[in-house]
Amino acid sequence: MNFKNRFIGWFTEGEKRELSNLHLTLFSFLAFTLAMFQIWSVVWGKLNPMNQMAVHLAFILSLTFLIYSYSKHTGSTRPTIIDYISAILAFGAGIYFTIHAERFAVRIPIMEPLTNFDIFFGLVFVLLSIEAARRTIGYPIIMIVFIGIGYALWGHSLDGLLWHRPFSPVEVLDELAFSFNGLWGSPISVAASFVFMFMLFGAFLNKAGAGEFFFELSTAVAGRTKGGAAKVAVLASAFFGSISGSPTANVVTTGSFTIPVSKKTGYKPSFAAAVEAAASTGGSILPPIMGSSAFLMAAVTQIPYGSIVIAAIIPGILYYASLLMMVHFEALRLDLPRAAKENIPKLSTVLKEGWYYFIPLIVLVFFLMQGYSASRTGFYGIISIVIVSWFHKKTRMGLRDIASAMVNGVKSAIPVSTACAAAGLVIAGIMSTGLGGKLTSIVLGLTEGMLFPTLILVMLICIILGMGMPVAAAYILTAMLAAPALIELGVSTMSAHLFIVYFSIFSAITPPVAVAAFAAAGISGSNPNRVGLEAVRLGLVGFIVPFMFVFEPSLLMLGTPGEIIVSILTALIGVIILAAGVIGWLITKATIAERFALVAGGLLTIYPGLLSDGIGVVLIISILFIQRKREIKIIKNDDRKPLEKGRLKGTNALNASPLSAENSFKLLK
């Protein structure tokens, strides 16, 4: 196979049809070069930070113009002459900034004048970054960028609190393209370092066959249970989502298998899609990887990565426990059959064949806990993946597989990097005009300094800013705007930023722009808005727990051992009962009044505190007693009359007879 054919072999057949071999070869060569540069700069290179960021952004912009068309409605994704010119200009700007990196690093923005070449290449980077973000992310983030730049240019015309001193267009460009508050601020710095390395890590892990292993592992764990197909979707998406960090990519990857199987089992298409969307989105809050969210938060807050992961353990477990129980109660409500044992792999067999896939994750955690940088840790994780892939002949990675994983990692990093570049432009407007402090005053003024209304407002800001944007950009933008208001009200830095992380992530399933739900709806053939609303219902705990840990930090492992243990146990009981109330089934079908009581009891038990726990337990025991009496009555009535032909018994899994399960299976077939 010649050089060109090796490169184009890394693309799907659909991409090959849309793009010519020359375009694919050029893209693959540039992507491979960028990956090699990033690895070199992390492990061996000692570059000026602006040098690394300029090279990274130049490559990312050029790659964007090669594979993302000007418009999705043109009918072709092949680059035009304008795209090639844009790619060349991006490289030119990257070279210029690399040459002058030391001068730009020490100069004082606005105080020292810019040359004509500075202005030209700075404007090139700004305009191309905006266009690249539009192509990869869409218009929402572009509107925010234009609002930020417009405020910097004309905010001096406003009265009152929003007024700022006048800025000339060149001064605004100086802040946007030449300051460490703008294009070269923390968003692109984070994207060009450890976020990129973890994108590569995820691509390598997937190339080595870990995705298939985690799916098999999920099937072995949950496949034998009632309605186990959707539970497999939850577990598989949790494993994959924690590594990938992209809810949409997670849905497309795991959902293509789990959604059709869940539908065939008996779940409604909208429910099957919503389960996948909710489970895929939650991967970004699940330690230890958290889809790079923990690393972003560590970079912004300077809180050690290990402390963030420990704090996120209980909330992550509560979210997935709730989601699994909702799926389970729905299976009981529909009286779905169990899968045939012969179709479910044995757990021991799955672990025997793929146990070594846990080694890279252990390597990551070990080196991060030892204080190594996230970028270097990601590199060690990649090396461990290549090594463990040789444990089995079928998964053994050769040079071509390694190069292919590099190209795939770069492809997945493009939308994140372009979004971070755009976020940096927004932050420049915020920092240069003092808008951040003004927004804090506005938020506190609207809520009159009360914590709960402030949390509601911050939640809405997170969801709005997160619409259609990657988690990295959504979190960084909201952290700059909203975190100071929470901290000023006495919320700890850990709680405030984790609160923002949660809602930046869950904007992916919140209508009207629920990107993860839309992707799942496309696979299931359901209405996207219906899937989004269903996903919010299933992911309800993800919207509740952040409020709980703000008011009671023991859910973040902060407190005495006794307080933490009690909080974990009562919160687990609470999310199970809350799931029962949302679905409408505990021991048997719940009435409307019982559902309200279950939801109330679950919420009270989730919230740490003896009084709330006591009231919640009383409510739960009362409903259990009422439903148990009703179940006994149903069983007695069923014993007195024969089962009608074709009718499914509405009992739980413990009381479902083999005949009922057999009839269910026949009806599904």
Protein described:
With 669 residues, the protein is an all-alpha fold. Helices cover 74% and strands 0% of the residues. The protein is globular, with a radius of gyration of 26 Å. The two termini are 46 Å apart.
Cα separation of the termini: 46 Å
Q: What is the mean predicted local confidence, pLDDT?
A: 84
Low-confidence stretches: 1-8, 643-669
Q: What is the SS-derived class?
A: mainly alpha
How much of the polypeptide forms β-strand, as a percent range?
Answer: under 5%
Radius of gyration: 26 Å
Largest beta-sheet details: none
Helix content: over 70%
Number of E-state strands: 0
User: What is the overall shape?
Assistant: globular
**Structure annotation, total helices:** 31
Topology summary:
Elements: H1 3-8, H2 13-18, H3 21-43, H4 49-67, H5 81-99, H6 101-106, H7 116-136, H8 139-154, H9 169-178, H10 186-207, H11 210-222, H12 228-244, H13 247-265, H14 269-282, H15 293-301, H16 305-334, H17 347-354, H18 358-369, H19 374-389, H20 399-433, H21 435-447, H22 451-465, H23 471-488, H24 493-506, H25 515-524, H26 528-538, H27 540-551, H28 561-583, H29 592-606, H30 610-640, H31 658-668
Helix pairs in contact: 3-4, 3-10, 3-20, 4-5, 4-7, 4-20, 5-7, 7-8, 7-9, 7-20, 8-20, 9-20, 10-15, 10-19, 10-20, 11-12, 11-17, 12-13, 12-14, 12-16, 13-14, 13-25, 14-16, 14-25, 14-26, 15-23, 16-27, 16-28, 18-19, 20-23, 21-22, 21-23, 22-23, 22-24, 23-24, 24-27, 25-26, 28-29, 29-30
